[in-house]
Amino acid sequence: RRPGRTTTPVPAVPENWAGVAHADPLSRGHRGYVGTPLARLDGPVKVRGRAPFAAEYGYDDLAYAALAYSTIPKGRMTGLDTAAAEASPGVVLVLTHRNAPRLNPQPGYDMSLRDPGIGFERLPVMQDDRVHWNGQPIALVLAETQEQADHAASLIHATYAAEPAVTSFAAALAAGTRPLEIFGRRIRVELGDAEQALAASAVSVDETYRTPPHHHNTIEPHAVTVAWHGDELRVHDSTQGVLHTAWTLGQILGIDPARIRVTSPFVGGGFGVKVLWQHHVLAAVASRTAGRPVRLALSREGVFRMTGGRPPAEQRVAVGADEDGRIRAIVHTGAYATTRHSPWPEPLSMASQNHYASDAFVLDTSMAYADLVQNCSMRTPGSTIGFFALESAVDELAGKLGMDPIELRLRNETATNPIGGKPFSSRHAAEAWRAGAERFGWSRRSPVPGSVRDGEWLAGMGCAMVSHHYQRRPGGAARIRLTADGRARAEVAAHEMGMGTATVQSQILADRLGLDIDRVSVGYGDSAMPGRFLAVGSSQSAGIGGALLAATRNLMDELLKLVRDGSPLAGLTLAEVGAVNGGLAALDDPSRHESYESVLARAGRAELVVEGSGEPPAEMANVSMFSFGAIFCEVRVSSVTGETRVSRILGSIDCGRVLNPRTAASQFRGGIVMGLGAALTEETVFDDRNGRIVNASLGDYHVPAHLDVPPIDLIWTDIPDPYAPAGARGIGELSSTGVAPAVANAIHNATGRRIRDLPITPEKLL
Ligand code: MOS
């Protein structure tokens, strides 16, 4: 048997792993909220308009900020005329590098995870006359109203001594590339001799795939409202990292992060970009300088100018196979653009390293430096574009083999990770493929491209794999307050960007404590709460879940210490009780039950407060943990205009246990909609001469609108992962990965045209 095709038994779960729901006696008090389609607990306040967002906090003496941006990509400002702005009505302050206080550098993310740094771009903030990209903030205007600030900012005029700049991806590539390193190590993977195996393969494809830059367009643009109370800074933010933002601002401002409180109870979308950027720093500095609370809400144009997104990339994917479709070699290499001052990884080649059994691999990613707005992680960094290349190539290979593309994938399923050989904790990708194909009606697909016509419309079906790695970050912690009325409130410094975080965690908490859902609540979005959480990497559910499991265990332990003589629980140990019916009970004799109210009352306690820390993420030590699935879609392409309409789409998902089918479906739909944008319309267009974005608006950068989105059907295997807290792997970034290739593959099936260059706009099909 060849390595990579063996079925290795999954090793035993780590001992004492509190996250293993089925192995944990405490979970026997389960009331069954997990897995039910509970409606979002934050839904009512949102639809009533009562959910405060960062730019909606009022202060009596609030001043409003607006930014002016550089208009060259690189050089020095030789003049910065602020006189007209200063004389403009209502202006309170004009802040530039000339009068800004001295600040420390931006520390950015700490890739070692030692410090809770956050942010992609590490330049000094308004500290000198240097310009690093076209769109860099060069002045902040503070005024009595937003309109006055906006107008005054438009009066700022800079003159420049421009320097040669690299303002296109082509120019960046031409200047040479260097290997991408993560954690100081090159991410190159080599197994066997892939080039030789490719050359020796009976059938192969070897193609180049191009993807454009993308911008995040969260429905709520970045915003902060800040106020100083003496030496304490209050920040109302829209962020994926409350604690990290407080810590990082503290470093830059040179003050103790404990004196900064960042709250962000509601976030109107994040996708990776809702982190610390220069506007946080500028708002805090302007507020301190002016002695007034400040609101700085980026305009949509401002979001494009000063926060970056997915970088442009060019990838080579080559796949070689035997006549029977067994993959022998995968080569996946490519380069993307980033900045020299703050290189940030877009690990596109990693998409190919975990899925197809193959004897040989070469996988590598390179960076090309450009003087453009900072790139950053955008929903499923690396994989979104990596899967476009890989899953297009696999479809092309199926065509050359004359084989159904699903059959080709099933022939190359593997129970162990082909790189490194670890078994998957739980992999039911084949079930997802089969169930999806059945439900979608894949058997009705014509294998002959261009053969199905309906008037001017050519119809076709395509599919592609989705996958994303499981992640649980260290540092998760939770506090639980149990009160004399038998209610429990948990607090975690985590985030709700619309995913259903608090809802799902309330379900876990209610089940773990044996409480009705209306007797529990979960607080979040406050840097003063426990735990070091980031809403990134599809990691929050596991991270919070692991912390809540630990905290509920501690709570039960503390409750047992309060048990008094006369209690039905007297003499029982933690291992002997479970939570059920609003209290604790003996596992072997449920009639020995005492309610939480009663335990606290007997002990004369008004409340019991405990904290718990999630265990280190050791569940990944011996297994590979990934979510899997498949996207199926049907397209109709006009032979007259080249327009593509996606008419149906199905996601068939294997993500462990689905904690809440309603919120999970919403996550999957959101990812699929984002994938449709990448497939068909989204592209940040830079003027190659000067690096300025020319489509910095939602009118010119087209994200999918309702008419672009067909009915989205979803099914899942719902097989709990024994290694993940509550059995659930991450889902946030999963579904977007395979959408663009599924659409491209369907377009090929419909038209016979293979487009290897996103987005697939009409002119490419004419
Ligand atoms: Mo995500 S791109 O890890 O917020």
Automatic annotation (TrEMBL):
SMART domains: Ald_Xan_dh_C. Residues 48-164 form the Aldehyde oxidase/xanthine dehydrogenase a/b hammerhead domain. This is Xanthine dehydrogenase molybdenum binding subunit apoprotein. The keyword Magnesium does not apply. It comes from the Bacteria. Keywords: Molybdenum, Oxidoreductase. GO terms for molecular function: iron ion binding; oxidoreductase activity.
